[in-house]
Design brief:
Helices cover about 25% and strands about 40% of the residues. By secondary structure, the protein is an alpha+beta fold.
């Protein structure tokens, strides 16, 4: 509200106090909205910058995992019966040339292994008279590959058979 008055020959105009405060409030509210929008935009850009937008890579080849270090059987199931105890002392070393050494500290056997990438298979062939080593000398489906554990399942002849190696 604007008031005009004539006092001693001079004209003065005064703003109503409420009009001035209302305009000041609108100006501050608009500034806060702009600041908030900038903050949200900055947060989204920061999140986008630190988020990995690449598509997941293919899992590593079994060869690059299993040839690193020594392994032990942490699970062997045959017909859904846990046979892991029979493998308690066996240590497996898979070499890059597809050869392998299996030892229990007393007896040592050699064998071969192969990864069929196209069919996702792992083939074990251990030259041993030990029944537990004969039982795992076969073709397996590759079920899981991590740098500390690999899991194989029977290749459909006996779906209740599973072999897991864990790195020492």
């Amino acid at each position: 509200m604007i008031k005009a008055a004539h006092e001693t020959g001079s004209l003065f105009i005064s703003y109503s106090c409420t009009t001035y405060l209302a305009k000041k409030h609108i100006t501050l509210a608009a500034a806060n909205v702009i600041t908030m929008n900038k903050l949200i935009l900055f947060s989204l850009l920061t999140l986008l910058f630190f988020t990995d937008c690449r598509k997941p890579s293919d899992p590593p080849l079994l060869t690059s995992i299993i040839t690193q270090g020594n392994w032990y059987v942490n699970l062997m199931k045959q017909n859904n019966v846990n046979q892991t105890a029979a493998y308690a002392n066996w240590q497996f070393t898979f070499k890059a040339d597809k050869g392998m050494i299996v030892t229990n500290g007393v007896d040592t056997y050699t064998g071969t292994w192969n990864e069929d990438e196209a069919r996702d298979k792992f083939i074990l062939n251990i030259a041993s008279p030990e029944i537990e080593l004969i039982n795992i000398s076969q073709e397996w489906d590759i079920s899981l590959k991590t740098y500390g554990r690999v899991v194989f399942k029977d290749d459909n002849f006996n779906p209740a058979e599973e072999l897991q190696f864990t790195k020492f």
